[in-house]
Amino acid sequence: MLAAQQWVNATYEGVAEGYVRCTPDGSTGWETVLSLTQGLQHELGISPTVRNFGPGTFSKLEARGGIRPSETNANLVSIINYALWCKGYRGASPASQWTATTTDSMNELIGDAGLASAATISNIPTRLLVQFIKALMRMDQFRRVSGGTEEIRKFQQHLNQVYVYGEDITTMDLAPCDGVYSRDVQQAVMKALQFEIGIPRSEIGGYFGSNTKAKLKEQPALGVGSKGNLVHLFTALCVFNSPVVDGEEETTTRIRSDYIDLTEIFVRAFQRFSQITVTGKSDFDTWAQLLVSTGNEYRTTTASDQAAPLTLARARALSDAGIQIVGRYLDEHLDPGDEHYLGKALTSAELSDIIRGGLSVFPIFQWNGTVKANFTYDKGFEQGSVAEDRAREFGFGQGTCIYFAVDFDATGADMDAVLDYFRGVRAALGRTNRYTYGVYGSRNVCINVTHRVGATWSFVSGLSWGFSGNLGYPLPANWSFNQIRNGTFSYGSGSFGEAWEIDRNVWRRFSDRGTSVLNPTGSPAQDFIGLIERLTTAALEYDAGIDPVKLVCMFFRKDKYNSSSWRVLLESGVDEGWIAHLAEQGLTLAARRDFTDPVTGSPIGTEHLMATLEMCLKYPSTTDLVTAGDIGGWAGDLASFYEQWREAKEQYPNPMLYAQDYLGRRDTVSKFANVDWVQDADAFNIMRLMRAEELSLPRAIARYYGTDSPAAGDRVCQRRYSLFYGERFDSDSTKTQVLARNMLLGENSAVEAIGGSWYLSGGFGLGSEDRPGNIDPAKLSSFVLAYAWELEERADAEKGI
């Protein structure tokens, strides 16, 4: 590589007009291949040279027949050999000669692209040869890379076989064959689809325009029994948009040319997740949702956001038109005298009018969100602080989600800066934990901020369909709003009406509810607090001789936590008479399986929470001894997560990397997901409240999930992780690791815990070689360290760290 860089600089710097020197550092990358591209252009007589292999370069190279083994221009041969090295194939030495090594590597590249049966370097058609030379001048990969799958790689090769070579679609480049869904692959699929639905070859451009939409609407919907190329493309798009994560369910599918029952199951799950009509077939809305970030931009929307202030009349007009919730900006960083001032900041009077007009509100914060320079940790901390101050001034209740905007096309190179900004936001809001944070941005931005910094909700800028972050990425698992159409909204006519610009958003059911009450005095968890009081009263009426806490917990755990292992450890099953007694009063679990977390506004599952609480109360855990109380909560979930990791050990030999993708994440299905972290910490903390302050269960629940009245003070749950970390582990990472290791190995554990850890986790399904005591001790240490780090990070976030 160093030789390539030195040669291209020495040969063309100061010779080829427009040439840009590449850094001679011995590393491959865009900088080097673009310099080689400029060298190629110079040899073709193009001046000035540019850092792009465009139509002009393609035509010139095609007109001269490409570059073949018989080539006599030593510089052109050198460019091919050095480009092969850049691509990861062997080039000849000396590079100025086309040798058997060059031929073998070119044939290997042709084979990796899926065309070994169609051509070799000795008989390849000129246009296809130029396609390969163009591919050499890019960073596209034709071997499977880390994170790529063989299924996707075979599909990429299929695109090259059928559409680039077989059908010779002249507007279509070779698809990379790296096993990864990307922007380039998305473009290739779009062009293949356009060909299949009858778009003229000369009009195939890879854009989801009006002609493509019209042709797609004419297509019969694919369903079970359908076969052929359209099914192949459709199922590939399904795979690219999978898995579909919805709560504890994860649905995947496979690329195939026949539409089977399992395909329909996935399509139905995808349609539900995307909030489009559930048909199980490839109707237009489903094609659109699979292809572009807006989906069908004319489908029904119930949310909007806008820079223009809303009056009472405007709010009522939006409500009458079916809009239920609106996004407005908490602040504007520019002074009114600035030429770019928009006047977009919310006011208290406007907020009151919006709510009086029948709408809810979700707050947005954006200062300089259109430029990368805004995205630093310090700016995130500053802006998070301002956002909290404004939200308090307006009267937004605790647990409100504030969306911080990334309003530019942030690429992979920009992502570290974006993540640092959100770490600053998290630290600022964590000082009080009054508000949670969401992210506004492309799909890729939302996915990264959610996965790596823990955003509660994602507001997707689907309207920016040309952003690279919206091409080749699925809809985030935690999406709450998807912005799909911009336009003018109007009502009335003449002096009795008005018009202004809005963005229309799809509002996901059961996601962020926004704010419809200012300065609330009740807790979002009030229904659950009241239910605990009602159940406690009913328990005392049912049998005063039985601990009412036991009966209340039994009500919640009767369906999911009533296995033989739970019955043995809790020394009781479920009192069916008690359940029947409650049913007579209309008290069943239906519609009571979760409640709203006052901290994040997300659902908390009542069944896991109360089953864990009962185990914690029976087996209190505050010492260096692992007890069944631990097993019923964090330790049992960690044991289950250990089992899940060992089942994925081939893909994830390193437990730290597995934990990074699955431990406590909001956007993946995991045996120790974010909801489990919340429930485990809350159950332990409620147990400690009941014991330390001698509170009854109803009083402890009310104290923990609290109210918003000033006299009540902070809710205890606002410090759930720091309390849990402090009370159970003494805020000590080493102790956390020791307890986790002891639990997994059955050391320094109560007898109930030794038997219970594998009982409750289902760990008996593991082979002996995967048991904690039989794996590499270094890997076991990494596994427990990952848990300790995640817990410490969550506790630190509540301290503004």
UniProtKB/TrEMBL annotation:
<feature type="domain" description="Rv2525c-like glycoside hydrolase-like">
    <location>
        <begin position="317"/>
        <end position="493"/>
    </location>
</feature>
<dbReference type="InterPro" id="IPR017853">
    <property type="entry name" value="GH"/>
</dbReference>
<protein>
    <recommendedName>
        <fullName>Rv2525c-like glycoside hydrolase-like domain-containing protein</fullName>
    </recommendedName>
</protein>
<dbReference type="Pfam" id="PF08924">
    <property type="entry name" value="Rv2525c_GlyHyd-like"/>
</dbReference>
<dbReference type="InterPro" id="IPR015020">
    <property type="entry name" value="Rv2525c-like_Glyco_Hydro-like"/>
</dbReference>
